[in-house]
Amino acid sequence: MPMIIGKISENEKKVKFNVEIHCTNCGKKVPGGCQAGEKYYQTQAFKIELENFKREYLCGICRDKKRREKQ
Ligand SMILES: [Zn+2]
Asked: Taking the model in full, what pTM does it have?
């Protein structure tokens, strides 16, 4: 399942793109197939959201670990 950046409305065309994402915890490179709505893609807001997404990204393993630590 590609990750979705921003919101895509139901009938909106989707743009698929690849982005290099690294887990912010372990540094593992994650193959990032992403999707965004056609109108949203390449807007300034989109770029900011993508940067935030990359800055906060955790791979599945680190996300699980974090979740377990909270319990
Ligand atoms: Zn990780």
From this structure: 0.77
